[in-house]
Design a protein that fits this description.
Length: about 80
């Protein structure tokens, strides 16, 4: 392989790494946002008195946790 071919391969790989790092960072931001939403929803449960409202909030928290699991999955296997 020539030097220019090697340099081209290195540049392509560096770009791939940068793109993967950006994807991981984006998923980490989503995860942080979801955790904040979970905290807000959890604190609103203590203010709620209705059983149906509490149930709805718990379901919402479960959905946020599922979204966090998807974020973690994407971070572990970025494409």
């Amino acid at each position: 392989m020539s030097i220019s071919s090697n340099q081209s391969s290195i540049l392509r790989i560096q770009n791939d790494i940068a793109n993967l790092q950006k994807k991981v960072a984006d998923e980490s931001k989503k995860e942080a946002s979801l955790l904040k939403q979970i905290q807000q929803t959890h604190s609103s449960i203590t203010k709620s008195s209705s059983a149906s409202t509490v149930s709805s909030k718990l379901n919402q928290i479960a959905r946020y946790n599922e979204d966090i699991a998807r974020c973690n999955s994407k971070k572990s296997r970025p494409s």
